[in-house]
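Protein modeling request. Please complete all fields; requests missing the sequence field cannot be processed.
Requester role: graduate student
Desired output: 3D structure, token encoding
Chains: 1
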Amino acid sequence: MLVPCIGALRAREAARANALLLSLQGSDATYWGSYALNVLELEPHVIAEQLGHQDGGRLVVQLYGHPDGALARRKIREAHDRAGAVTPL
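Delivered output (89 residues):
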């Protein structure tokens, strides 16, 4: 039995993911846009490209730029951790 190389497997998975994204319409595309921005943390211009927008990601941020509360708090904590010790006010 032949085992495909890792590169071929990745290319196949990428093609399947791309076909899925191209088939998304309506609320499915909205859900994916929000998920991609707020959970996967993809750049807005990347999401806009996939959704067929031509505004560089402005509409993606306007529509989907509302992260989950727990995720937002985690990002704030991580930013403070990267900055070093912070003295509370």
